[in-house]
Structures are given as C-alpha cells and as structure tokens.
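Appendix B. One record, verbatim.
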Amino acid sequence: MKRKILLFILCLIFLSGCSLKRFAVNRVVPVLQDVDKSIFSETNYKLVESGLPGSLLLMQGMLRATPNNFDLLVMNAEGFCGYATGFVEDEDPEYATALYLKGRDYGLKALKHHRKFRKNLEKGEPLREAIKLIDDKDYLNALLWTGLCWGQQIMLNINDPLVIVNATDVKAIMEQVILIDDSFLYGMGHVFFGAYYASLPSIFIGGPEKVEAEFKKAFEISEEKFLLANVFYARYYATLMVDEALFDQELNKVLEAPSDAIPEAALMNEIAKAKARRLLKDKSKYF
C-alpha cells in the first residue's frame, strides 16, 4: 500500500503545479523516511549500491518543488554522505569529494532553519561560534550529516591547506553532536573525532592517547557491534601507531562479526565489511 501511495504522489509531483507539488512532496517525505530506515536494515550491499544513486536523484528532484523542506535537506545530506563513504571514496576520492561537498551544502541549508544560528551567521559571526546556538535534539541529524560530509571531505584532502582552513568549523559542528547526545548513531561522533584527531599532526591534538580514547568511547557505546568503528580504528589509530597486528586484528574481527548484530544498522556493518576487505588488500599502502 505504501508503494502505491508513493507512486501516486510522485506522479502528482512531476505533473502538477507548484502548490500541489509542494503538498505532494510534504506528504511523501514520511514515506521516504520509512524507506530510509529500511535501507539501513538492508544486508544486500550490491542492491543498495545500484539503487542509491536513483534515490538521490529523486530526492534532489523533490527539492526543486520544496527547496527549503528541512527533512528532505537532511535526507539528501545523509544520502550523499552514505553513498560517498560506502561506495565511492575508496575507488574515486575526487568524485567522493564532490559528493561530500554537495551533502555538506544540503546540511548547512537545513541547519539555517534554526533562526538564531541563521541570524548570527548573517551578522558575520563565525560558524564555529554560531553553531553553539544549536543545542536542540531536533537538529541532531542535520548536525551529524553536515559534520560528517564536511569532515570526510577534509580528511580525503588533508594535504590541501585551503581545505584545512575549515577544520575548526567541522570540529565545532561535531562537538555539538557530542554535547547533545554522544551516543547518537552508535557513538558516530566519537568515531569521527578518533579519525579527525589521527589525521592531524600530534602537536594539534596532544598525542595518540586522545585518538584512542575517542574510539574506546565509541566501542563502549555500541558494545563493539557497530563495525565501522573498528574499521576506522584500524585505518586511523593502528596506522598512526604503525601497529600492523592491531590493524589485522580489528579488520578480521569485522569480517567475522554478524552484520545484523544491530539490525537497524545492518547496511552500515556491510559497508564496514567491504571497507575491511579493501584495507586488508591494500595494507602495503599503510605499513
């Protein structure tokens, strides 16, 4: 029934006038949010890889009817981040960079729905300061996916000084995620900071202990069932410490773990397994 309703509303979107299009989009967004949840539970990696680009094009098309729809903006930020992380960046970092920037822009537009944040930006306040005004759980998804898109884009281009300039803004966004709910998305904020700190020279972060502490906190939150944390731990901490044994241990642990240990994150665990296989194959690049 939901599928029939979705198809009907999509017909309205593409065939009707502006006001009716906006009405149709607003009605279909909750259905898309349900679809989004089902995708996260999917264990067929190849199925999602082939289907996700079409979904992203559809959501972008819907935004043409309602350019300021908060939920659609956040879903686009999430979609571009997930697609770039899970299916693109290991093969084509340049294309992934473009996807991350697109997702970041959607996320920033969503965050500007917060009136005080938007007004302070318009007054010329730096983003890293204005973002502190957003302390509402309703903005957690927007904060997280904006920060992840931007942060991943920076880490992919860590040697570009023009990119590093924005690192303090990204750090401030992700600090708000931690402040509001550090367990959100299985401690993904801590996973991010573990990778973020490991990517920067030690003089800026105070040593590898800070990197390890962030990953350990993420492990504690998810009870080591969120496998992307282990992948990032191997990729960033083990390589930082030049610990090949730890690198192998963590990635093999990922490959042996059940993807559905967290049913609603099965896809993310499947992505972790794909990344683990790739890292083991390319181990000579890191040691």
